[in-house]
Amino acid sequence: MPIDESMVGRKYPAAEPYQVGREKIREFADAIGDSNPAYRGDDAVAPPTFAFPLGSRALESLLADPELGLRLDRIVHGAQKFSYVRPIKAGDEITATATITTVRKAGGVDVIIYETELATPEGELVATCTSTISHAAEQAG
Question: Per the domain annotation, does 65 fall within a domain?
Fold first, then answer.
């Protein structure tokens, strides 16, 4: 099935909520080389880009949609933006739901913009991740 504007509005939840642990925050901060003390200890807050791995869990659902027919080997990640309502904190439980907001053609490439809402199970919005990916069409044999 071709990727087209009829896909706009489709929602893709992550399989399960993510429990944010202070050690995961510290490990992430270490991995990106940020020694900010706010990212350590019992009251740790996550670096802003910590939202990416949380949001990517919903991307797995989008990639698994057989109607979209996306192939990881044909995708280029084009842009990423994070909008926060509040910081992600140690002890948070975060759900992730991706929604396709835009589909357009650019030559032989499908450009897909999707927003991933990161929220608590109670529905408190924590952050929104906006991502742009380009998916190359399969070359004719």
Answer: yes
